[in-house]
Amino acid sequence: MRIDRADVIVTSPGRNFVTLKITTSDGVTGFGDATLNGRELAVASYLRDHVAPLLIGRDAHRIEDTWQYLYRGGYWRRGPVTMAAIAAVDTALWDIKAKAAGMPLYQLLGGESRERCQVYGHASGRELPELFDSIRAHLDLGFTAVRVQTGVPGLPSVYGVASSSAAGDGGGRYDYEPARRSARPAEETWDTRAYLRHVPSVFEAVRNEFGPDLALLHDAHHRLTPIQAARLGRSLEPYDLFWLEDVTPAENQEALRLVRSRTTTPLAIGEVFNTIWDYQTLISEQLIDYVRSPVTHAGGITGVRRIMDYAAMYQIKSGMHGPTDVSPVGMSAAVHLGIALHNFGIQEYMLHDERTNAVFGPTVEFAEGGLRPSQEPGLGINFDEQLAEKYPYEPAYLPTNRLLDGTVHDW
Hints:
The chain is of the alpha/beta class and about 400 residues long. The protein contains 13 helices and 18 strands. It has helices spanning about 40-55, 65-75, 80-100, 105-110, 130-140, 190-210, 225-235, 255-260, 280-285, 300-310, 330-340, 355-360, 385-390; strands spanning about 5-10, 15-25, 30-35, 115-125, 145-150, 180, 185-190, 215-220, 245, 265-270, 290, 315-320, 345-350, 365, 370, 395, 400-405, 410. Helix 1 (about 40-55) crosses helix 3, helix 2 (about 65-75) packs antiparallel against helix 3 and helix 7 packs parallel to helix 8. It is globular and about 60 Å long. Mean pLDDT is about 95; it is low at about 165-175.
Protein backbone atom coordinates (compact mmCIF):
# COMPACT_ATOMS: atom_id res chain seq x y z
CA MET A 1 0.00 0.00 0.00
CA ARG A 2 1.86 3.04 -1.28
CA ILE A 3 0.84 6.60 -0.47
CA ASP A 4 -0.57 8.18 -3.61
CA ARG A 5 -1.88 11.54 -2.33
CA ALA A 6 -1.60 13.72 0.76
CA ASP A 7 -4.15 16.55 0.80
CA VAL A 8 -4.35 19.32 3.41
CA ILE A 9 -7.89 20.57 4.06
CA VAL A 10 -8.48 23.82 5.97
CA THR A 11 -12.10 24.38 6.91
CA SER A 12 -14.03 26.45 9.46
CA PRO A 13 -17.42 24.94 10.35
CA GLY A 14 -17.84 26.95 13.55
CA ARG A 15 -14.09 27.15 14.12
CA ASN A 16 -10.88 26.53 12.15
CA PHE A 17 -9.55 23.01 11.57
CA VAL A 18 -6.60 21.57 9.64
CA THR A 19 -7.14 18.02 8.38
CA LEU A 20 -4.75 15.77 6.49
CA LYS A 21 -6.22 13.22 4.08
CA ILE A 22 -3.87 10.48 2.89
CA THR A 23 -4.95 8.26 0.00
CA THR A 24 -3.17 5.03 -0.93
CA SER A 25 -2.59 3.63 -4.40
CA ASP A 26 -5.48 1.17 -3.88
CA GLY A 27 -7.90 3.89 -2.76
CA VAL A 28 -7.86 3.55 1.03
CA THR A 29 -8.08 6.92 2.80
CA GLY A 30 -7.02 7.98 6.27
CA PHE A 31 -7.53 11.23 8.18
CA GLY A 32 -5.38 13.07 10.70
CA ASP A 33 -5.96 16.21 12.77
CA ALA A 34 -3.31 18.97 12.55
CA THR A 35 -5.24 21.85 14.13
CA LEU A 36 -3.16 24.32 16.15
CA ASN A 37 -5.50 26.95 17.55
CA GLY A 38 -4.61 30.44 16.33
CA ARG A 39 -1.67 29.14 14.26
CA GLU A 40 -3.57 26.86 11.89
CA LEU A 41 -2.02 28.13 8.66
CA ALA A 42 1.51 27.53 9.94
CA VAL A 43 0.78 23.80 10.27
CA ALA A 44 -1.12 23.72 6.98
CA SER A 45 1.92 25.15 5.21
CA TYR A 46 4.31 22.81 7.02
CA LEU A 47 2.24 19.86 5.86
CA ARG A 48 1.49 21.04 2.34
CA ASP A 49 4.89 22.47 1.46
CA HIS A 50 7.32 20.30 3.44
CA VAL A 51 5.74 17.01 4.53
CA ALA A 52 3.24 15.95 1.88
CA PRO A 53 5.83 15.78 -0.94
CA LEU A 54 7.95 13.43 1.19
CA LEU A 55 5.08 10.98 1.71
CA ILE A 56 4.28 10.17 -1.90
CA GLY A 57 5.37 6.63 -2.74
CA ARG A 58 6.08 5.58 0.84
CA ASP A 59 4.66 2.34 2.24
CA ALA A 60 1.55 3.35 4.22
CA HIS A 61 2.01 0.41 6.60
CA ARG A 62 5.42 1.59 7.85
CA ILE A 63 4.03 3.88 10.55
CA GLU A 64 6.96 3.83 12.98
CA ASP A 65 9.49 4.29 10.20
CA THR A 66 7.53 7.25 8.81
CA TRP A 67 7.26 8.80 12.28
CA GLN A 68 11.04 8.60 12.78
CA TYR A 69 11.68 9.78 9.21
CA LEU A 70 9.66 12.95 9.77
CA TYR A 71 10.93 13.57 13.31
CA ARG A 72 14.64 12.82 12.92
CA GLY A 73 14.96 13.58 9.22
CA GLY A 74 13.76 17.16 9.53
CA TYR A 75 16.63 18.12 11.88
CA TRP A 76 14.47 20.84 13.52
CA ARG A 77 12.75 18.69 16.12
CA ARG A 78 9.87 19.11 18.56
CA GLY A 79 7.64 22.15 18.85
CA PRO A 80 3.87 22.42 18.28
CA VAL A 81 3.95 23.00 14.50
CA THR A 82 6.26 20.09 13.75
CA MET A 83 4.57 17.68 16.15
CA ALA A 84 1.04 18.58 15.02
CA ALA A 85 2.09 17.85 11.44
CA ILE A 86 3.67 14.52 12.43
CA ALA A 87 0.56 13.73 14.48
CA ALA A 88 -1.66 14.22 11.44
CA VAL A 89 0.44 11.87 9.32
CA ASP A 90 0.69 9.28 12.09
CA THR A 91 -3.05 9.29 12.84
CA ALA A 92 -3.98 9.08 9.16
CA LEU A 93 -1.68 6.07 8.70
CA TRP A 94 -3.19 4.29 11.70
CA ASP A 95 -6.63 5.01 10.22
CA ILE A 96 -5.52 3.42 6.94
CA LYS A 97 -3.97 0.39 8.62
CA ALA A 98 -7.12 -0.29 10.62
CA LYS A 99 -9.33 0.10 7.55
CA ALA A 100 -7.09 -2.30 5.63
CA ALA A 101 -7.44 -4.76 8.52
CA GLY A 102 -11.22 -4.29 8.53
CA MET A 103 -11.42 -3.45 12.23
CA PRO A 104 -11.75 -0.44 14.53
CA LEU A 105 -8.42 1.14 15.35
CA TYR A 106 -8.41 0.23 19.04
CA GLN A 107 -8.22 -3.44 18.12
CA LEU A 108 -4.78 -2.83 16.58
CA LEU A 109 -3.71 -1.08 19.79
CA GLY A 110 -4.37 -4.16 21.91
CA GLY A 111 -8.16 -4.17 22.20
CA GLU A 112 -10.37 -2.86 24.96
CA SER A 113 -9.07 -2.29 28.49
CA ARG A 114 -12.44 -0.88 29.63
CA GLU A 115 -16.04 -0.52 28.54
CA ARG A 116 -15.83 3.24 27.94
CA CYS A 117 -13.56 6.22 28.56
CA GLN A 118 -14.84 8.43 31.37
CA VAL A 119 -14.98 12.06 30.27
CA TYR A 120 -15.38 15.41 31.96
CA GLY A 121 -17.43 18.35 30.80
CA HIS A 122 -17.03 22.08 31.39
CA ALA A 123 -19.24 23.92 33.86
CA SER A 124 -18.81 27.61 34.49
CA GLY A 125 -20.53 30.73 35.74
CA ARG A 126 -19.78 34.29 36.72
CA GLU A 127 -21.50 33.74 40.07
CA LEU A 128 -22.67 30.69 42.02
CA PRO A 129 -26.28 30.44 40.75
CA GLU A 130 -25.08 30.49 37.15
CA LEU A 131 -22.35 27.96 37.94
CA PHE A 132 -24.82 25.63 39.69
CA ASP A 133 -27.14 25.79 36.67
CA SER A 134 -24.25 24.84 34.41
CA ILE A 135 -23.27 21.88 36.61
CA ARG A 136 -26.88 20.65 36.70
CA ALA A 137 -27.06 20.90 32.90
CA HIS A 138 -23.99 18.67 32.61
CA LEU A 139 -25.40 16.18 35.08
CA ASP A 140 -28.60 16.06 33.05
CA LEU A 141 -26.53 15.21 29.96
CA GLY A 142 -24.98 12.28 31.80
CA PHE A 143 -21.56 13.64 32.81
CA THR A 144 -20.08 12.17 35.98
CA ALA A 145 -17.15 14.61 36.11
CA VAL A 146 -17.03 18.37 35.49
CA ARG A 147 -14.36 21.02 35.29
CA VAL A 148 -15.46 23.99 37.38
CA GLN A 149 -14.37 27.48 36.27
CA THR A 150 -15.66 30.61 37.93
CA GLY A 151 -15.76 34.35 37.56
CA VAL A 152 -13.52 36.36 39.88
CA PRO A 153 -14.90 39.45 41.65
CA GLY A 154 -13.55 42.59 40.03
CA LEU A 155 -12.55 40.96 36.72
CA PRO A 156 -14.89 41.50 33.75
CA SER A 157 -13.92 38.26 31.99
CA VAL A 158 -12.07 35.11 32.94
CA TYR A 159 -10.88 32.22 30.78
CA GLY A 160 -13.21 29.23 30.88
CA VAL A 161 -16.27 31.16 32.06
CA ALA A 162 -18.79 30.92 29.27
CA SER A 163 -20.74 34.08 30.00
CA SER A 164 -17.78 36.42 30.53
CA SER A 165 -18.32 39.72 28.77
CA ALA A 166 -15.24 39.39 26.55
CA ALA A 167 -16.08 35.88 25.43
CA GLY A 168 -17.16 34.70 22.04
CA ASP A 169 -18.16 36.70 19.00
CA GLY A 170 -19.98 39.88 19.94
CA GLY A 171 -19.70 39.28 23.68
CA GLY A 172 -22.23 36.43 23.78
CA ARG A 173 -22.00 33.16 25.63
CA TYR A 174 -19.47 30.64 24.44
CA ASP A 175 -19.79 27.23 25.99
CA TYR A 176 -16.46 25.61 25.39
CA GLU A 177 -13.63 27.64 23.89
CA PRO A 178 -12.86 31.37 23.86
CA ALA A 179 -11.33 31.67 20.37
CA ARG A 180 -12.69 34.81 18.74
CA ARG A 181 -12.89 35.53 15.03
CA SER A 182 -10.83 38.69 14.77
CA ALA A 183 -7.64 40.06 13.28
CA ARG A 184 -6.05 40.36 16.74
CA PRO A 185 -6.46 38.53 20.06
CA ALA A 186 -8.76 39.98 22.68
CA GLU A 187 -7.09 41.12 25.91
CA GLU A 188 -8.24 40.09 29.37
CA THR A 189 -7.08 41.31 32.77
CA TRP A 190 -5.97 39.19 35.70
CA ASP A 191 -5.62 39.53 39.49
CA THR A 192 -3.95 36.52 41.13
CA ARG A 193 -4.66 37.55 44.74
CA ALA A 194 -8.37 37.98 44.05
CA TYR A 195 -8.43 34.58 42.33
CA LEU A 196 -6.68 32.80 45.21
CA ARG A 197 -9.08 34.35 47.73
CA HIS A 198 -12.18 33.44 45.74
CA VAL A 199 -11.70 29.94 44.33
CA PRO A 200 -11.71 27.92 47.60
CA SER A 201 -15.06 29.39 48.57
CA VAL A 202 -16.49 28.37 45.20
CA PHE A 203 -15.46 24.74 45.63
CA GLU A 204 -16.80 24.73 49.18
CA ALA A 205 -20.17 25.86 47.84
CA VAL A 206 -20.11 23.32 45.00
CA ARG A 207 -19.34 20.45 47.36
CA ASN A 208 -22.08 21.54 49.74
CA GLU A 209 -24.57 21.69 46.87
CA PHE A 210 -23.63 18.57 44.89
CA GLY A 211 -22.14 16.24 47.51
CA PRO A 212 -18.95 14.18 47.66
CA ASP A 213 -19.39 11.84 44.69
CA LEU A 214 -19.19 14.23 41.74
CA ALA A 215 -15.66 14.36 40.31
CA LEU A 216 -14.52 18.00 40.24
CA LEU A 217 -11.63 19.41 38.23
CA HIS A 218 -10.17 22.91 37.94
CA ASP A 219 -7.79 24.62 35.51
CA ALA A 220 -5.47 27.36 36.80
CA HIS A 221 -4.22 27.87 33.23
CA HIS A 222 -0.52 28.44 33.92
CA ARG A 223 -1.18 31.68 35.77
CA LEU A 224 0.47 31.03 39.13
CA THR A 225 4.00 31.07 40.47
CA PRO A 226 5.12 27.83 42.16
CA ILE A 227 4.42 29.12 45.67
CA GLN A 228 1.01 30.45 44.61
CA ALA A 229 0.25 27.09 43.00
CA ALA A 230 1.20 25.28 46.19
CA ARG A 231 -1.08 27.58 48.18
CA LEU A 232 -3.99 26.91 45.84
CA GLY A 233 -3.48 23.16 45.90
CA ARG A 234 -3.43 23.09 49.68
CA SER A 235 -6.48 25.35 50.00
CA LEU A 236 -8.47 23.01 47.73
CA GLU A 237 -7.55 19.80 49.56
CA PRO A 238 -10.77 19.73 51.67
CA TYR A 239 -12.86 19.57 48.49
CA ASP A 240 -11.27 16.40 47.07
CA LEU A 241 -10.51 17.49 43.51
CA PHE A 242 -10.04 14.87 40.81
CA TRP A 243 -7.21 17.12 39.63
CA LEU A 244 -5.84 20.65 39.57
CA GLU A 245 -4.61 21.48 36.09
CA ASP A 246 -1.73 23.63 34.81
CA VAL A 247 -1.08 25.37 38.10
CA THR A 248 2.16 26.97 36.88
CA PRO A 249 3.97 27.27 33.54
CA ALA A 250 5.36 23.77 33.18
CA GLU A 251 8.38 24.65 31.05
CA ASN A 252 10.10 25.04 34.42
CA GLN A 253 9.61 21.40 35.36
CA GLU A 254 11.60 21.71 38.58
CA ALA A 255 8.99 24.17 39.89
CA LEU A 256 6.60 21.26 40.34
CA ARG A 257 8.88 19.89 43.07
CA LEU A 258 7.84 22.76 45.31
CA VAL A 259 4.15 22.36 44.46
CA ARG A 260 4.25 18.59 44.95
CA SER A 261 5.94 18.87 48.34
CA ARG A 262 3.21 21.14 49.72
CA THR A 263 -0.08 19.68 48.53
CA THR A 264 -1.73 16.31 48.00
CA THR A 265 -4.19 17.67 45.43
CA PRO A 266 -3.63 15.62 42.22
CA LEU A 267 -1.86 17.55 39.46
CA ALA A 268 -2.45 17.43 35.69
CA ILE A 269 0.12 18.98 33.35
CA GLY A 270 1.07 19.00 29.71
CA GLU A 271 -1.52 20.19 27.21
CA VAL A 272 1.16 22.46 25.72
CA PHE A 273 3.79 19.68 25.68
CA ASN A 274 4.59 17.92 22.42
CA THR A 275 6.98 15.04 23.10
CA ILE A 276 8.02 12.48 25.67
CA TRP A 277 11.14 14.55 26.38
CA ASP A 278 9.00 17.41 27.70
CA TYR A 279 7.83 15.08 30.48
CA GLN A 280 11.14 13.54 31.49
CA THR A 281 11.50 15.22 34.89
CA LEU A 282 7.78 15.40 35.64
CA ILE A 283 7.29 11.67 35.13
CA SER A 284 10.55 10.26 36.49
CA GLU A 285 10.23 12.30 39.71
CA GLN A 286 6.48 11.60 39.94
CA LEU A 287 5.64 15.31 40.10
CA ILE A 288 2.31 14.91 38.30
CA ASP A 289 -0.61 12.49 38.30
CA TYR A 290 -2.06 12.99 34.81
CA VAL A 291 -0.54 13.57 31.36
CA ARG A 292 -2.49 16.16 29.37
CA SER A 293 -0.98 16.00 25.87
CA PRO A 294 -3.49 15.32 23.09
CA VAL A 295 -2.93 13.03 20.14
CA THR A 296 -3.23 16.06 17.83
CA HIS A 297 -0.28 17.99 19.29
CA ALA A 298 2.10 15.31 20.55
CA GLY A 299 3.06 13.24 17.55
CA GLY A 300 -0.13 11.29 17.05
CA ILE A 301 -1.08 7.91 18.42
CA THR A 302 2.53 6.74 18.23
CA GLY A 303 3.80 9.77 20.15
CA VAL A 304 1.20 9.75 22.92
CA ARG A 305 1.37 5.98 23.39
CA ARG A 306 5.12 6.34 23.90
CA ILE A 307 4.51 8.96 26.59
CA MET A 308 1.89 6.84 28.32
CA ASP A 309 4.05 3.71 28.35
CA TYR A 310 6.71 5.76 30.12
CA ALA A 311 4.15 7.23 32.52
CA ALA A 312 2.82 3.77 33.37
CA MET A 313 6.11 2.93 35.06
CA TYR A 314 5.26 5.56 37.68
CA GLN A 315 1.50 4.95 38.03
CA ILE A 316 0.73 8.17 36.15
CA LYS A 317 -2.44 8.18 34.04
CA SER A 318 -3.73 9.87 30.92
CA GLY A 319 -5.93 12.96 30.89
CA MET A 320 -5.75 13.94 27.24
CA HIS A 321 -6.57 17.50 26.22
CA GLY A 322 -9.87 17.64 24.32
CA PRO A 323 -11.04 21.19 23.54
CA THR A 324 -13.11 21.98 20.48
CA ASP A 325 -9.98 22.98 18.55
CA VAL A 326 -9.07 19.29 18.63
CA SER A 327 -11.24 18.18 15.73
CA PRO A 328 -13.50 15.09 15.79
CA VAL A 329 -10.61 13.29 14.06
CA GLY A 330 -8.32 14.04 17.01
CA MET A 331 -11.06 13.19 19.51
CA SER A 332 -11.77 9.87 17.80
CA ALA A 333 -8.07 9.03 17.89
CA ALA A 334 -7.96 9.86 21.62
CA VAL A 335 -10.92 7.60 22.36
CA HIS A 336 -9.47 4.67 20.40
CA LEU A 337 -6.18 5.09 22.27
CA GLY A 338 -7.90 5.68 25.61
CA ILE A 339 -10.07 2.57 25.40
CA ALA A 340 -6.90 0.49 24.89
CA LEU A 341 -4.48 2.13 27.36
CA HIS A 342 -4.14 0.33 30.67
CA ASN A 343 -3.24 3.60 32.44
CA PHE A 344 -6.11 5.67 31.04
CA GLY A 345 -7.37 8.25 33.54
CA ILE A 346 -10.01 10.54 32.05
CA GLN A 347 -10.72 12.30 28.75
CA GLU A 348 -11.59 15.95 28.32
CA TYR A 349 -14.74 16.22 26.20
CA MET A 350 -16.09 19.42 24.67
CA LEU A 351 -19.16 19.10 22.49
CA HIS A 352 -18.49 20.21 18.93
CA ASP A 353 -20.67 22.56 16.92
CA GLU A 354 -23.37 20.89 14.81
CA ARG A 355 -21.64 22.23 11.68
CA THR A 356 -18.39 20.61 12.78
CA ASN A 357 -20.06 17.25 13.30
CA ALA A 358 -21.76 17.50 9.91
CA VAL A 359 -18.40 17.99 8.18
CA PHE A 360 -16.45 15.33 10.08
CA GLY A 361 -19.13 12.70 10.67
CA PRO A 362 -17.75 11.31 13.96
CA THR A 363 -19.14 8.00 15.27
CA VAL A 364 -17.93 7.94 18.88
CA GLU A 365 -20.76 7.20 21.31
CA PHE A 366 -21.40 9.11 24.55
CA ALA A 367 -23.36 7.41 27.34
CA GLU A 368 -23.12 6.88 31.10
CA GLY A 369 -20.52 9.61 31.48
CA GLY A 370 -18.11 8.15 28.94
CA LEU A 371 -17.15 7.71 25.30
CA ARG A 372 -16.51 4.57 23.32
CA PRO A 373 -15.51 4.18 19.68
CA SER A 374 -17.85 2.70 17.12
CA GLN A 375 -17.18 -0.62 15.41
CA GLU A 376 -16.49 1.00 12.05
CA PRO A 377 -13.08 0.13 10.56
CA GLY A 378 -10.43 2.73 11.26
CA LEU A 379 -11.12 5.88 13.28
CA GLY A 380 -14.82 5.98 12.44
CA ILE A 381 -14.69 9.38 10.68
CA ASN A 382 -16.90 10.09 7.66
CA PHE A 383 -15.47 13.35 6.33
CA ASP A 384 -17.62 15.38 3.90
CA GLU A 385 -15.18 17.26 1.67
CA GLN A 386 -17.85 19.06 -0.32
CA LEU A 387 -19.45 20.43 2.83
CA ALA A 388 -16.03 21.39 4.20
CA GLU A 389 -15.45 23.62 1.18
CA LYS A 390 -18.44 25.75 2.19
CA TYR A 391 -16.64 26.91 5.37
CA PRO A 392 -13.50 28.90 4.45
CA TYR A 393 -10.82 29.77 6.98
CA GLU A 394 -11.33 32.88 9.10
CA PRO A 395 -8.67 34.33 11.44
CA ALA A 396 -9.46 33.54 15.10
CA TYR A 397 -7.36 33.84 18.22
CA LEU A 398 -7.34 32.89 21.87
CA PRO A 399 -7.15 35.88 24.22
CA THR A 400 -4.00 37.38 25.66
CA ASN A 401 -3.73 38.33 29.32
CA ARG A 402 -2.46 41.34 31.28
CA LEU A 403 -2.18 42.07 34.98
CA LEU A 404 -4.02 45.07 36.38
CA ASP A 405 -0.92 47.23 35.87
CA GLY A 406 -0.73 46.30 32.18
CA THR A 407 2.02 43.67 32.34
CA VAL A 408 1.60 40.79 29.88
CA HIS A 409 0.89 37.67 31.93
CA ASP A 410 0.59 33.93 31.27
CA TRP A 411 -2.66 32.91 29.63
